[in-house]
Design brief:
The complex is a heterodimer of chains A (110) and B (115). Chain A has 110 residues and is mostly beta strands. Chain A is built from no helices and 10 strands. Chain A is globular and about 40 Å long. With 115 residues, chain B is mostly beta strands. The chains are: A mainly beta (110), B mainly beta (115). At the A-B interface, β4, β5, β8 and β9 of A face β5 and β10 of B.
């Protein structure tokens, strides 16, 4: 079952912050976040595991609320290079496939 | 780490023809995934392998689609009797281990256009 992302699209000025949400109707085991620029392959950002372990980049962080079955991606002090479409990928059990969300298009302007 | 390689980058075919795509994963990666992506949508799962074993195939996938990963190295995705609805970007990804512990590394994809 495909996770739902919100918002669908967001426009920011450089330096502003953004939050992207990913919600699932099923209990999550792990959540991945990827960014895809137009015409390119998705690039890994981070993984969050059930139990709270987290990996990631410096100005990009994420949370994983197991009870609410959702994850949020936080982009602080956005840069022009942050523009792209962000996808969450969810895993519902150990050793299962990754199911990608509906996507959030982010545009950072000057 | 040379990355995930997909061939061809683009394929234009007439409806009813068969097509085959190839994916070469990162060499030490055990898992290999195939996804399909249409404009404005997230990658849609097709199938995945652990070494040479095909672990799951999407129920949405018709019998016209088949994938192999002989010897647990490269993989091929074949679409028989192509239809216009098959037009999409076909993405291959690989990971070292199960998804919970390992990020997916995607190739640049094969864009299929069925006329």
């Amino acid at each position: 079952q495909q996770p739902v992302q919100s918002p669908q699209a967001v426009i920011l000025r450089e330096g502003e912050d953004a939050v992207i949400n990913c919600s699932s109707s099923k209990a999550l085991y792990s959540v991945h976040w990827y960014r895809q620029k137009h015409g390119e392959a998705p690039i890994f950002l981070m993984i969050l595991l059930k139990g709270g372990e987290q990996k990631g980049h410096d100005k990009i962080s994420a949370s994983f609320n197991e009870k609410k079955q959702q994850s949020s991606l936080y982009l602080t002090a956005s840069q022009l290079s942050y523009s792209g479409t962000y996808f969450c990928g969810t895993e519902y059990g150990t050793a299962s496939k990754l199911t990608f969300g509906t996507g959030t298009r982010l545009q950072v302007t000057l | 780490d040379t990355g995930v390689s997909q061939d061809p980058r683009h394929k234009i075919t007439k409806r009813g023809q068969n097509v085959t795509f190839r994916c070469d994963p990162i060499s030490e990666h055990n898992r290999l995934y195939w996804y399909r992506q249409t404009l404005g949508q997230g990658p849609e799962f097709l199938t995945y392998f652990q070494n040479e074993a095909q672990l799951e195939k999407s129920r949405l996938l018709s019998d016209r689609f088949s994938a192999e990963r002989p010897k647990g190295s490269f993989s091929t995705l074949e679409i028989q009797r192509t239809e216009q609805g098959d037009s999409a970007m076909y993405l291959c990804a690989s990971s070292r281990n199960v998804a919970a512990n390992s990020p997916l590394h995607f190739g640049n994809g094969t864009r299929l256009t069925v006329t």
